[in-house]
User: Fold this.
Amino acid sequence: MTAGHRSILAMAAVCALLVSATDTAKAQIGVTRTQAGWIGVGVAAIGAGIGIGIFYAIHHGHSINGCALSGPSGLELQNRGDQQTYALIGEVAGIKPGDRVRVSGKKSKANSAATRQFLVEKVSRDFGPCEVAHASG
Assistant:
């Protein structure tokens, strides 16, 4: 026998074995109810994740965290994030100079002549006294 004949004979044997197999394959068209339920759960979870992400993206910039200082125009807060100093206006009764706080509110439009202002709507958290920077030497 030549190599070509052996190849054809081997293919015929494999086909005969496949045809004589007892289990038949069933074609599944569509999805089952269980699969549809899990797909719905997945779509709802993705939607909720997107909604929560948008909520936090919109509301993220409305608080600053830093050390309260007594400045020339009243109470000021040096933001830990960008090291900018903001004059605090609004609900500042619960803030004492020397405390590290997180305040919620709105930043004012930056003027080139005036200092930045932050309108405090509420004190979100009081972290206690500010850390003192140690002199290295």
About this structure: The longest strand covers residues 116-129. The chain is about 30% helix and 30% strand. The two ends are 93 Å apart (CA to CA).
